[in-house]
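The protein record filed here:
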Amino acid sequence: MAAPTEEEGAVGPRCHHRSSAMLDVPFLPFCAFLGTLGLLCVAMVGTWCQHWRGGFSLDGSSRTFNWHPVLMVTGLVVLYGAAALVYRIPHTWSGPKLPWKVLHGSLALGAFVLTVLGLAAVFRFHNSQGTPNMYSLHSWMGLATVLLFSCQWVAGFGAFLLPWAPAWLRALYKPIHVFFGSTILMLAVASCASGINEKLFFSLKNGTTQYKLLPAEAVFANTLGLLILIFGVLVVAALARPSWKRPDSDSPDSRQ
């Protein structure tokens, strides 16, 4: 068999380069789309609780519970996803790194505060209604996610923001921090999806159209769950994309 000519041999690399270029998406438009999707998730969970679940209050009733899904989706999914993508912004690739570290840690801390408030809402509702706490898979998975999140934030603060943390410790912990960042987000997405499903099972029964008959509320809430899943997958995909990762630098500014 004759060897391929130089022109024929170049067809493969050229096709591969062309297909890669076609799949290449600029980060900022992608980020704008992702931000819109995140805001849509927050708006939808708020609409669900307001329109179908009776709104919000702090009196220990089911309206107190409604703060739980809103705060969890806002904090543990959307705001946490935004924190995870800070270092993918091209403007963070040059100059001092410390301000971006502070922004990353602050967004994560804000997500954690909203998450704790969301947990407080569901515990207050359960206690006022005499409902046992922590009996479902959703509750176990959600609490495990929050505990892992808190450990992640404390460890990240100690390793990357405290000035006396040695360079070897930062280098050792960095891949662990990145791995658990994606893991926590996907656990949060799974917790939200299971929580939506659990709420629909509890709510759509006696006196309402059953869940299995797919009333409008079920369609709306299931769509919300799918959008949350898409948001989480896109964030993890962005974190894994090599061309969007912050280039390593040995300059003194980058090590701040």
Notes: The mean pLDDT is 88. The longest helix spans residues 167-203. The helical segments are 6-23, 27-51, 62-65, 67-84, 98-129, 137-161, 167-203, 216-240.
